[in-house]
Amino acid sequence: MVQYILFAILQVLTLSQTFLLGDNNHECVYQTKNGTLDMRTLGYSNGKPRFLDIPDYSKPEQYAYSWNGCFPFNEGDSCLNAAVCKSKSTAHFHCSSSRDCNHVSVFLTETLTTNETTLIITQNITKTFYDDESYEELDYMLGRNARVGIIFMCERDPNKQHAAAWEVTDYLIVFWIHDKCACPGECAYWEHFGN
């Protein structure tokens, strides 16, 4: 009888340890030098992107990008099961000052409206994670030469949290995510259920 009880306790401990290991080894969870960075905290699980219509740094009046951490989203009729979508802008906007125009993704004074949405990459594409001294980066590889890079910048101040995007070349798009959840160890996934 004691053997069975010890066996049952051992099984429960093994199962709970397996669950924890499985969660830590989730394809959207990365161990960094500074702690765990969980992409699920940087995305919505409701089919909508957490970072929606970020104006292109070099062409903010023409293009915008959307990104969602870990979970696929849909935007428009042609961008389905996406990690990144590109939209052609139809709206014009102005910055509140000349300084703000250098940081256009933060200081838009009008809503950016878009149409003609294009799928750039899906969530199930090959990803590579880099852990640098001052930031972490997740790269989605689009073949031999093309990639999308997501650079995570730790920003705990809610007034300074923002996202920026730039299509550097036809083969490289870079996002900068300045967010509390871009700080390793800062956000736990269960805080974001119901997005």
Question: How are the SSEs placed, and which strands pair?
Answer:
Blueprint: H1 2-24, E1 29-32, E2 35-38, E3 51-55, E4 63-67, E5 73-75, E6 79-89, H2 98-101, E7 114-122, E8 127-131, E9 136-141, E10 147-154, E11 162-169, E12 172-179
Parallel strand pairs: 10-12
Antiparallel strand pairs: 1-2, 3-4, 4-6, 5-6, 6-7, 8-9, 9-10, 11-12
InterPro entries: Man6P_isomerase_rcpt-bd_dom_sf (IPR009011)
Keywords: Signal
Signal peptide: 1-16
Fold and architecture overview:
- The chain contains 2 helices and 12 strands; from the N terminus they run αββββββαββββββ.
- The strands form 3 sheets. Strands 3, 4, 5, 6 and 7 form a 5-stranded antiparallel beta sheet that branches. It has a 5-stranded mixed beta sheet with strand order 8-9-10-12-11, with no helix packed on it.
- Helices cover 14% and strands 39% of the residues.
- It has one domain: Mannose-6-phosphate receptor binding domain (Cation-dependent Mannose-6-phosphate Receptor, Chain A, Distorted Sandwich).
Q: Main attributes?
A:
195 residues; mainly beta; Cation-dependent Mannose-6-phosphate Receptor, Chain A; 2 helices; 14% helix; Man6P_isomerase_rcpt-bd_dom_sf; signal
Mean pLDDT: 77
**Cα-atom Rg, whole angstroms?**
20 Å
Helix/strand class: mainly beta
Shape: globular
Number of helices: 2
Number of domains: 1
Short description:
This protein is mainly β. It has helices at residues 2-24, 98-101; strands spanning 29-32, 35-38, 51-55, 63-67, 73-75, 79-89, 114-122, 127-131, 136-141, 147-154, 162-169, 172-179.
